[in-house]
Amino acid sequence: MSASVPITIVIADDHAVVRQGLRLLLEAEDDLAVVGETSDIGQTCSVLREHTPAVVLLDLHMGPDLSLSALFELRSASPDTAVVILTMEDDPAFVAPAWSAGAAGYVLKEASRGDLVRAIRTVAKGGRYLDPAIGGWALTSAEEPALTDRELEVLRLVALGHTNSEIATRMYISPRTVETHRANLQSKLGISGRPGLVRYALEHGVIHR
Predict the structure, then answer these.
(1) DSSP H or E run through 9
(2) Taking the mean position of all CA atoms in its chain, how far away is CA 77?
(3) Residue 2, domain member (yes or no)
(4) Angle between helices 194-203 and 175-189 (to 10 degrees)
(5) Percentage of the chain surpassing pLDDT 90?
(6) Which range of residues forms the domain containing residue 165?
(7) Which tens digits make up the pLDDT trace of 117-137?
């Protein structure tokens, strides 16, 4: 894409400092143009409808909930806009649901400018980009229907009655990561809610692992 037809970008992050830094970084590239900044999902939908950018950089945790839950809404607001998840979460458990929800890119906030720009250019051309720091493991997880060791451990602890906070403490991960593992479990197993997970764990001997 030539400099005369720049890739238009909206930055969606609830931290103003992050948005400002990203704008400075991206606008240093001749073929990139930031056309909007947003701090919540509702505002992001409005700006996407107004500008129909080529790419939206979306913070995975914008507000109290996972932004992935709003991806359908965002893509409905601007179907031609490619979504690049920009996050601190390097746990591969987040990647498969990001793809399933319609994201085209997944980049860590600690990535170099070169990697971020490469991701934007790749998805703007219709491709998919996964941060190389987690690429191999994440793609393997996305393709395998079997539960990962972490998912099995979360399932076991859920079945034993532990809360998300207790599971997070036991596994040395964040409560949000526990939530993601639980969402992955429900998606993979076709189960809705805690009772179903407990029943599955009992029927498959997970509690006795």
Answers:
(1) strand 7-12
(2) 18
(3) no
(4) 70
(5) 42
(6) 145-208
(7) 989 998 998 888 888 777 544
Asked if residue 183 belongs to a domain, the reply is: yes
Q: Which residue has the tokens 């539960």?
A: 147
What is the amino acid identity at position 205?
G
Amino acid (one-letter) located at 87 = T
Over residues 178-209, the pLDDT tens digits come to 999 998 888 878 888 888 888 877 766 666 44
What sign results for the dihedral spanned by CA atoms 37, 131, 103, 175? Answer: negative
Q: Which of 69, 111, 56 is nearest to 87 (CA)?
A: 111
Structural domain total, the chain: 2
Q: Token digits for 189?
A: 């197993």
Per-residue buried b or exposed e for 136-159, using 16+ beta carbons within 10 Å of the residue's own CB? eebeebeeeeebbebbbbbbbbbb
Region of 103 (left: φ > 0; alpha: ψ -120 to 50; beta: rest) is beta
How open is the CA angle 124-103-133, to the nearest 5 degrees?
A: 90
Place of tokens 């500008």: 51
Q: Is 36 exposed, middle or buried (0-12, 13-18, 19+ CB in 10 A)?
A: buried
